[in-house]
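Here we describe the complex-level prediction in full. Unlike the single-chain runs in Section 2.1, the two entities below were treated as one system.
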Amino acid sequence: MTAIVDYGVGNLFSLRSSLEALGEHPLVTADPEAIRAADRVILPGVGAFADAAARLRAGGLDGVTREIAQRGTPLMGICLGMQLLFEKSLEYGEHSGLGLLKGTVRPIRGILDDCGADPEGKLKIPQMGWNALRFRQASPLFRYIQEGDYVYFVHSYAATDCDDALAADTEYGTWLTACVQRENVFGCQFHPEKSGTVGLNILKAFCETEKEA
Amino acid sequence: MITKRIIPCLDVRDGRVVKGIHFQGLGDVDSPVRLARMYSESGADELVFYDITASAEGRALFTDILTETARQVFIPLTVGGGINTVADFDRVLKCGADKVSVNSGAIRDPSLVGRAAKKYGDQCVVLSVDVKRVDGVFRVFARGGRENTGMEALEWIRRCVGDGAGEVVVNSIDTDGVKQGFDLEMLEQVCNIVKVPVIASGGAGAIDDFLTLFRRIPGVDAGLAASIFHFGEVRISDLKQEMRRQGIPVRI
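The structure predicted for the assembly as a whole is:
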């Protein structure tokens, strides 16, 4: 059984529907025991990093998410949920994440400025729309998709300094982190539940991951 | 590289698509759910559902079909029509919409865009604006393009984007229905003043009109159309192949 962590951030309708379309029966829950019992866990999220991190803590769900990840249960963060997997974010200040992956979440504008891309500020922030994946390391998530496939992004921040876990990136002035994986911890910056067949295939691959012995 | 989006728009009344849409080999189809699925399969990057219902019963039917569509179609869905309050945003977002487009509702209550953006995020709020030239000035029209508000369009767009509209659909009344191409002059001016995605609407009659749009106005992110897709004058798969051939970034 796949659990979707419900901590009051964003709309889980599409995510739940997409898993149901794959024949899964996901459990949308805020109950730590149910999350502990799940075969795999999805951490969704939209909105602001600090607010989401605070809600996760307030619900007592940060500890259990870290715990199941450390026990080997497959965990996938989506969009802001992926950003929360990292050590910290520089979105309006500096805020701690779950620290399951090494790296820092930074504003796309700052990333572009640092590498001298887009000096005239022509690229729109957020990156909103369909962009292609470039694979950087093999991942079970890619079992049913191909390099160059398009997925749907909506984000103003991106993970940096996360080479250890970088699985795929996407070109937006520079190369931005699109997909991460380290052992049983997975993340998608884009929305697989809004990325048509490609997105469903990524979710399908995740639903086939098994807990590590 | 981010792709240019192609967006079909479906007008829905009482839970059915207004003019039965003719798909080759299928005859007329008026189920929004089936149409949404077909468009998604044929390569649409996003779908707009426009609710033109007036009655409460019709509105309930609309949210039913929206829910059903969102259960089956996994590309971004934008909903417009009858959005006058933050509660209206809530109603359609709960049914699976990803973005909500406001038009007359924002004109009647200009604080709506800001309040909705604060609650749901800028990326959720789409400003839709009907624009027409009056004595050489772009003016905002309300009530489906029937009423001149007297407001200057570029100023209105700038203000709403400043308040948090994350995307702008520019519908040119002057080119709408004429099928002679998008309103490039108007779109260029809008692109010059905002840094959020701009969606062109009104005037597409053929594949060439989209090619011209994306080549001439690189700031435009998406092209929206209704009848030319519905009546098979332009097939999205053909359009996208042609875009790719011409070097326009496109998802195939």
